[in-house]
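Worked example

This section walks through a single chain of length 361. The input is the sequence exactly as stored; nothing has been trimmed or padded.
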Amino acid sequence: MNKNFLLITGGTGGHVIPAKNFAHYLSIKNINCTIITDKRGYKYFDNYNGKIYIISSSNLNGNIIFKIFGIFQILLGLIQSFIIIFLLKPSHSISFGSYASFSPMLSCVLFKSLYKVKLYIHEQNSIIGRTNKFFLNFTNKLFLNFDMKSKINSKFKNKIFVVGSPENNIKKNIDKCNKNSESDFTIFISGGSQGSEFVSNFASNLIKIIDNEKIIKAKFIFQCSKHLIKKQEEKLRNIKSTIILKDFFINVDEILGNANLAICRAGAGTIVDLINYKLPSIIIPLPSSKDNHQFFNAKILAKHDLAIIIDQNNDDLDKAKRHIYEIYSNAKKLESMNKKFDMIQVKNSNTLIYKLILNEN
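Given that input, the structure is written out below as tokens.
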């Protein structure tokens, strides 16, 4: 088989990181792999040694001026993609979604017959994105992170495979029940790849309440955007609880492995991390996420009583506080949650995707 893989991605970390992880997997197998992404996506490939092309893209948000500018960006990206794919002649192309994938995927469709390109889609979220949905008719297989086959037109059922999300390292046998939570209770706070100001403000207000009530003793590891750090430092200046506040943590795997609870958004990558690390959570879905997909991502855990969902428009600090106190003090609940996390199967996604592609040849 002529193995010349093209991975198409862009935008936020939720789309880019799975592509990056699968690219690393292919490079370990000495398979030629090229990346097409946009400027936003490129920052996630800082330690990738393969070929990367950066194209123009736009989500067409904003006023009429931004929309007109966005159309020109898309047309430029289409020209760039057409030239790249014409020269690259990929044997297999995999789209990981986002608006940045539209132009490269359209170019792949145009070259599908000429180069015998096999097209695949990986969908990270619990609702298929608009770009991925647009190309469903042209793809050989659709790879899903979560089992949402019932939400997809039945005519595509033979294309659908639930494979999970490509990762660098899948954590196994994590048992949060064995951790003495009352003596070392750690809450990890993260606003996602975009560094949410709402999550940061919500978390700092919650920290002040917990610190003032003195019902539990907790340590807070708090990730927020660089431009918000001074504001949060001022808000938390008189807090006696231990707080580690940074815009970036290089040891996030270690933090997730040792934390007892997370306060976070509901991007697909975040949900996968919560499952892998068996981490109870307070999830605040981004209301403006396309098709409200973050809310449906969060429900994957909430329906198993592994997380509570906070409506950003409600700002229910009391609900969040009560959940934290229960996780802190209820050993039976933690044991039950640990078992429920075990029931959510974590797949070896990289190998599974690769085998499903090989089986088509």
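What to look for: The mean pLDDT is 90.
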